[in-house]
Amino acid sequence: MNTQTNGKTANGNGNGNGNISVAKYCTSRVPTAKPEETLGDVQQRICANMRNFDTVDYIYVLDNEEKLVNIFSVRALYSNPPQKRVGSMSAPKKLCTVKEGTDRERAAYLALKYHITSVPILYKNGCFAGVIDADAIHRILYNELREDLMRFAGIRHMKSVTTSALQTPIGLALKHRLPWLLLGMAGGILSAGIIDLFEETLKQYLLLAAFIPLIVFTTNAVALQMTAFLIRDLATETDLPFGKYVLHELRIAAVLAIVCGMLLTAIVHMLYGDPKTSIVLGLGLFCGILTSIFTGTVVPYTFYRLKLDPADASGPIGTIIQDNVSIVIYFSIAAWML
Question: pTM of the predicted model, to two decimals?
Answer without folding.
Answer: 0.55
